[in-house]
Amino acid sequence: MEDNPKNPKYITDIAHELRTPLTTLRTHVEAFIDEVWEPDKGHLLILHEEINHLEQLIQNLRKVSKLEETELILNKSYFNISNETQKIVQSFIPLFKKDNYEINFKIEPNN
Asked: Does residue 86 contact residue 107 with C-beta atoms inside 8 Å?
């Protein structure tokens, strides 16, 4: 999903992402009202997860909105990804050696 609120696909994707947890919440609550299900811990946990999902979506929308409000200046830089990856892998070697594991890796040089 492209994070551009002016993009119609973005808006459609957000609407879908919001509809899914709302539908789950609605169907579960209707099942409780109609006494199809008892509001037991299992069903309530599902509702809780969907509420958390909605909260996360709303937080993400707020972040995108704030990004749109500010002028974002990116400073691009070039770096050698091979060297950086090698440093990262090497930083884990002592942890693995401590538990008698060995890391084997081959990173192609970045030209």
From this structure: yes
- Collapsed DSSP state (helix, strand, coil) of residue 66: helix
Helix, strand or coil, per DSSP, at residue 63: helix
Tell me the CA end-to-end span of the chain in Å, nearest whole number: 32
Give the three-class secondary structure for 9: helix
Report the top-level CATH class of 8-69. Answer: mainly alpha
Q: Write the single-letter amino acid at 33.
A: I
Spans of all domains in the chain:
8-69, 77-111
pLDDT tens, 45-72? 999 999 999 999 898 888 888 777 777 6
Prediction pTM value = 0.52
pLDDT at site 1: 43
